[in-house]
Amino acid sequence: MHNRIGFNRLGRKPSHRKALHRNMVTSLIKYERIETTQAKAKEIRRTAEKLVTRAKVDSVHNRRIVAKTVYEKDAVNKLFTEVSPRFVERPGGYTRILKLGKRSGDAAEMVILEFLKDEVEPKKKAAPKKKAAAKKTTAKKTEAKKVETPVVEDATVEEPVAVPAEEVKAEAAPAAETEAPAEEAKVDEAPAEKAE
């Protein structure tokens, strides 16, 4: 029977397996993306996510617990300062596994294990989508109201039309004055021609 097997031993002795976990988790923290086999990635993911959860709270105690697994001080510092602050709001699932296909030598399923990108932005983007949908429905309602409104606006436009009519008359008078000198010029030219 295969019941309650807690983890994949990966065909290695305990010391070799622990060293493999430490090395791969350290590489994952340093480079934030590693390429490995699917079986190893699933096991490394468990260890990495536990470390990120521990690193969410930066304390001496948590740093010492993480330092038991990750021996490089640079990697521990990066975990506490760069990687885990991205996931403060996220309750788990800090990594993802992307399938690459089978390895040519032994047909082992190859994958990329990587940390997710910043998670704060998608949550902010999701909320405006709902508001945008609500704005669309209100926009449709306001458009329906605007269709009725132009009839009222036409009536209000008629009142100012009377004022421009007076202005047109006032504008017509200066235009007549400008036309009158032109007529006088024609009259002046005509006698000059007769004089010749």
Q: In words, what does this structure look like?
A:
This protein is mainly alpha-helical. It folds into two domains: 14-118, Alpha-Beta Complex (50s Ribosomal Protein L17, Chain: A); 120-196, no CATH class. The chain is 68% helix and 10% strand. It contains five helices and three strands. It has helices at residues 14-31, 38-55, 60-69, 73-83, 120-195; strands spanning 33-37, 95-102, 109-115. α1 packs across α4 (73-83). The chain is globular. The termini are far apart. Residues 149-157 have low confidence and may be disordered.
Task: Indicate the proportion of strand residues.
Answer: 5-15%
Classify the secondary structure makeup into a structural class: mainly alpha
How much is the radius of gyration in Å? 40 Å
Q: Assign a percent range to the helix content.
A: 55-70%
Q: What's the helix-strand series?
A: HEHHHEEH
**CATH architecture descriptor text of the largest domain:** Alpha-Beta Complex
**So what's the CATH class of the largest domain?**
Alpha Beta
Low-confidence stretches: 149-157
CATH H level of the largest domain: which superfamily? Ribosomal protein L17
How far is the first residue's CA from the last residue's CA? 132 Å
Q: How many DSSP-defined strands?
A: 3
Shape, per Cα inertia axes:
globular
Biggest sheet layout: 3 strands, antiparallel
Subunit organisation of the chains: single chain
Number of domains: 2
Strand order of the largest sheet: 1-3-2
Report the CATH topology name of the largest domain. Answer: 50s Ribosomal Protein L17, Chain: A
